[in-house]
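Question thread 4412

I'm putting together a teaching handout and wanted feedback from people who do this every day. The idea is simple: show students a protein as raw sequence, then show them the structure tokens that encode its fold, then repeat with a second protein so they can compare. Below is the first pair exactly as I plan to print it.
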Amino acid sequence: MSTWREEYQGDPEAERVMFERLAQDMMGVQLKTKKYSSAPTIQRAFHSKAIFAAIDAKLKFLEDLPADLCAGFVKPGQSYTTIVRFSNANGFGQADYKPDMRGVALRIQVSENEQHDLLATNFPVSHARNAEQFVAFAKATAGGILSKVAGLVCLLFKFGPSEVIRMLRNVTAARKRKVSSLALETYWSRGAIRWGETLAVRYLLRPAPDAPSAPEPSDKDPGYLSNEFARRLDRGDVHFELCIQPYVDPTKTPIEDTAIEWTTTASPPVKVADLMISKPGAGIAEAFTDARLIDELSFNPWNTTDEFRPLGNLNRARKAVYDASSAHRHIYRWRSELPLRNRVLGGAARAAFAVVNRYVEWHRLSLRLSLLNLDAFRHVLRNRNLIDTEIGEAPPAARPVPPTDAGEDVRQARTYDGSFNDLSQPKMGAIGSAFGRNLKPDFAPDLFDTPNPVTVARELLHRDTFIPARSLNILAAAWIQFQVHDWVNHARNPLGKDDVVVPLPKGMTWKNYVGGPAEDVMRIASNVAGREQGANRPPIYFGNNASQWWDGSEVYGPDSVKAGLLRDGPKLKLVDGHLPVDLKGFEVTGFNESWWLGLGALHTLFAREHNLLCDELRSRYRTWDDERIYQTARLIVSALIAKIHTVEWTPAILATRAIDVGLSSNWNGPPANDWLTKLGIWLIDAHALTGIPKTLPDHHGAPYSLTEDFVTVYRMHPLLPDDYCFYDHTTGTKIAERGFLDIQGAAADDCMRAFGLRNALYSFGIAHPGAITLHNFPRSLLALERDNEIIDLSVVDLVRTRRRGVPRYNDFRTGLHRPRIKSWEELTTSPEDVRLLKEIYGSIDRVDTVVGLFAEPAPAGFGFSDTAFRIFILMASRRLQSDRFLTVDFRPEIYSPFGMDWIASNSMTSVILRHCPDLVSVLPRTGSAFAPWRPIFPSSKGVPPERPS
């Protein structure tokens, strides 16, 4: 017997990428079918109408089964309970008398840990040679008459007339056959499968030789096949024979080309088992329930073991395509089609803005043009700057147990580790999932230390004189760290294991450990590798040790064990209104690394908010248990945090009217009274007509993740001042002066209790953070003690970015579709910085990303560069758009009606005032809580207060 083999189109990874595209196309077919069939919901792409289903059929292998056909569960005389579903092949669920193929799906239940799906149709050969032909033909022939005509024309250009004619003849012949009974049809597999270690086979299910005849097909009864099968079962069991056709050679029995029939002459069928379907013994109600359960099942030929895995291109595609189609049908995955006007006018608008932007920066345009330009930017970035770094399954692998439905608990509440946010891809965004990329990595080990990062940091980053950001207060600095702790966490090895070793400039030494010796190198704890890239090459992929969703994990913890330790019933543990402390004196909360008083204030504030919400929910929903109250309060707090960041913090740090309107629209939709903007959006991007929370989840072609480039633009350490003054919020009297090191680590809790939350918030509210610019990196972070290490964070920021393969600044800029800079003067307006940059880097293309982002002149009102802003445009929407709990499940049934109202009506200001009501007179009346507050002039000075400038 000849040896069979598979042949890949390119390689397994190239096929995987193609299959993911085909899966999206098949979801489009489902949408088109729904539209033209007027079905209320998404149906199966094919075989949508079940004709008959049985939950307890029996498949029994022959007693005298030859030894060379025995493999795995295939054993002589062995019998298995089998689920059977007969169906019409069309996706419209049409009447039985309509021209159509018929299909059968079997689920052979070997044990709880092993099941096998077999799928077949009543025509011996597929019309499609491979997966691409199959999906292209499905797309072309879905929808109405005009759609089909246009689709067939496209097929002619894609595959040529002869192939299109062949496919049409095949499908026409398969559909025009009159079927009198399902029990009298033979059903053939689509493509081959393995059968044990050495065999490749196609299989078929044929009626038993003694099957009784059936009356002529009806042309009036839409359910005549179902009725005939039921009458047949009244008279006795229905029997089929399961047969296999062994592989012979690549010409007569090809593995890859499913359009070539394995004839009975080339490979005579060999009977291996009998299938017996009996009349259901259950009552009518139970029988209907069983049928409904079977109809909900998702059959897939990859639900099997490796000994019986599907073979060939068409079969390899079925795992991804069928899974996507099933998820779409079960409302686990979504696809939204842009209207034709958006595809045409949106493309024209993007082309026009691309020309305009060569001459005029987007922020110099009028408000409406700026908003439309930002929408165009986002579209381009979504298409070109979302790179999936997870290792895909290539080639597909068999799975002995079909995927199970998510439990009710994960449907209604967030998991702690971020799993099951996307019900079709449970691990997406969960702890341990990969950081993605917005730009192709630039991995250059020979330039890791060029120029020396210590020199770069010392000459270009270190703070000489504090440069304030006068439009913000220090709460804005604390807030972004509060958020980053929720989003990203690169796990680190302990110092001493695979250290990153940075050579020091000549004559310089460094103590790497507390109490350690002075060395001529700086040692930095390495990140835990997520995946090796090859022999002798460090990894450029890392897993995120935090959930990547906007889920408040910095407050609630990353797992159920930690969350349980923080809870007291439905509430978070507080001691006299403050967070409890551990043995080291640190506040106990979800994540307390890099801790300081600013974080302590925000964690305390939102812990109090959670507990207040528990009381409010308890008073309104008296039948709820502790768990539901806790999880609902957790959802509300997490969504409120996301809203505050979207519509308050980001517009505060990017203080322009276009950003304010744009980000408010991200959450609330465009202004109701701005009909001209709404018209423009309707014309070019109808999906933006409502706020993202009113839309469906959309990952825009790449599984959701935060990215290494996103981490890079959030390196905002210059926001932190080195020196702090604390004041009484009622009198304005100074309480204390502290340096940053005096209010960080274990000292933070002592300060919180000494000053009180109100005084801490007030003191941060009236003070400015640092500007995100060169020469403004906090001195307090240049020799910071952490886990017995001594680290210079200014150097760490440079080293981490280089070693994670983030492109240098000029490549980073061009990768985000901005013009490449060619002169030093384009990078900075400071002659002294031009001199330093030239001296240190030599080439403008070697400027570090962090340095370039700090040096680049920002648009008016911006707290950081326009290049960094490109990542914000993309990721600010993505963090909302991908999240089920901030889109399709952002609804009263999940959050409660009270919770939805709470999120809609609250802001950072109202959160602060709820827990510190006597700060009402100092908070901005109309502005953001992240803008400077009104300072109180100390009455003890004996002079009248002056209006603050």
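The second pair follows. I'd like the answer to focus on this one:
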Amino acid sequence: MNKKTSVLSAMPLVLSMTLALPGHAEDALPVAGSGKDAGNNKILDEVSVTATREARTTREVPQAIAVVGKDKIEKKRMFNLKEALEGIPGVQADSKNGGSDVRLFIRGAGVKAVYGIREIMVLRDGVPVTDPDSLTRLDFIDMQDIERVEVSKGPGNIYSTGSFGGAIQIISKSVFDTSGNVARIGVGEQGAKNLHLRYAGMANESNALAITTSFRKQDNPWRVRNVSDSKQLGFKHGLLLDGGATLESELTYANSKMQLPGGMDLAGFTSFLATGTQTTQAGIWKNSKRDSRVWSFNSKYEKEIGDWTFKPRVYANWWKHYHPVTGLINDTVNWTQTIGTDIEGQNKHSLAGMSGSLVAGVTLRQVGNSDSRQYQYRDVAKAGTRIIATLSDVEGALASQQSYTDTVKGIFMQESLRPTERWLVDAGMRYDQSSFSMTTNEISKFNYATATYAAGAGVFQTNKSYNLPSSKLGVTYKATESVNVYATIGRSNQLPANAEITANPNLTVATSTNYEIGMKARTDDWFGNIAVYNNKLNNEIVSVNTGGTQSFVNAGKTSKQGLELDGGYRVVKNVEVGGQFNYSNYHYTSFSEPVGATNAVRDGNQLPFIPKDRYGVYVDYKHPSGISARVQSNFSGEYYVDNANSQMYGGYRGVVSASLAYETGPHLFNLSAENLTNKYYAMEVSKTTTGTVTYSAASPRVIMASYSLKL
């Protein structure tokens, strides 16, 4: 048994020994719901815990941050994270099937992801959802059990390990919160169905219990192979201990089945624009999907001792999946196991007459699998010896076997000081070391040049270790009672994902340095945010697609400049109007892209898939009688579809989401719509270096009616 395997095997013992240790209580933070006070309808500031690891209003955070509150979430279908993130400048999110396959960018980070979310740290109640290699899967998160969502943009976040895009914190309903007890049923277009039950209560003076169960399905008959369904069950336990300490634990299970439809060529996309139906798929791999089962556990404790608050937590998850992709079928025969701990302390103090707060802690996390396999596709169509299409997702001959471990060890700390009542200074850092070890027996592989399976490389070992320093310095100044201004410098490294290392073992970490200034205004009747940033990247990891096979290389230098605006105004007592806008000028300063046997210079070219301008407007109505409504219209400019900047796609105009709700007593009736005007457009268009263009369709209209009974 090697050293890394023994560490993984010993972690369950660490887990069992630390179950009695305390964890975070941030889940129970009171927030302002949608940002409005129900009694006087004033616009209020939200509370964030993601940017600084301590509760703070968003206006006091020296960086761009957005908080999506309870009221907005309750009026959404919440089939996936995309619906919560709508209308946040600098954030692009979309889904192929309304399931958990969200394609997510924050200021361009994550653009190279083929599946899942890359370069962005995602957490749930402070527990990392993102793997140590920066890949995030959302299939085990119950989107119906969400109190709020926080988005912190840019590098240097104290939560983020090896991810420079920022952090997203999904905060679930606390076990001690009985106001979230609900039974919900919903049905809608495209075969959409939703069932959800959540009930929490105190078993006695010290023990709280909660159970949640959810079922979501969307048939998506407008496109071939596009069904998504998810079944989830969760149990929470809360314990009130002597001295004001709390211990919260949670166990969840998820069973997710999700077909991943392929794109279209120009003829197929033209047909889709005319009919709203996709009947064909371009390319060979027509049977992609991801079926997964996930068990997840976490326990967290919190206790105040003098000026210190201690917040250790432990967590673990085990998952299996069946995942046909390009060329091969992934099948985790054994459970992939992730176990970790995050031991944190906070200290309130004074320094040279200034009030201060210190947050510090350590992180240890490891993921591993002793038998992860890849298979050939069994059922294929051929032209001669060339494979031209898959006919099913059934496994054929064994192609490879892998065992691997991926370990992260880190420390973090942040000091916050108030020199005066108007000034607030944050200085934070974290230092992580990521070690990756994989043994592969490659029996066969798919040869893209001949479109056949060929002999593999046999047994080989991959070992990589990366040091990942991250830091941030931010200053907030209270200019007036309503307006804060800030400036921040953040720097962090981006870790290559395991699959990227396998494709290109010579990859190095990318470095992002971000300079940002901004303003945040809050009054009773209006709010506004402005952020201007200049982000310099060295060795950014970009994807290269040479006619069907995707690889990854380090670009030399990339420059990202942007402007983000959002705001809202209460025009009359019950009506708020607002919108958001972001301008993005992202280009390669120096980058040579492999094209066949040569390198093509891309210096000065714009990054693909990122439009220079995106904007939206909304109207929000809320009446004391219980009637509320919201309409949001989104616009996206054109963007280049490849690194060569050889072709552009025109984006979309006026894609509308809307909700209409009536709440009376414990009853909530809600009608929600995504793409209300039923526009047909592409959520993404891409082009390979050999000239093949692929269109991925966005979903047509989905209107859903739901009824919720508060228990």
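Top answer:
Good format. For the second protein you could add a caption like this: The CA atoms of residues 15 and 139 lie 24 Å apart. The domain at 3-253+266-710 is CATH 2.40.170.20 (Maltoporin; Chain A).
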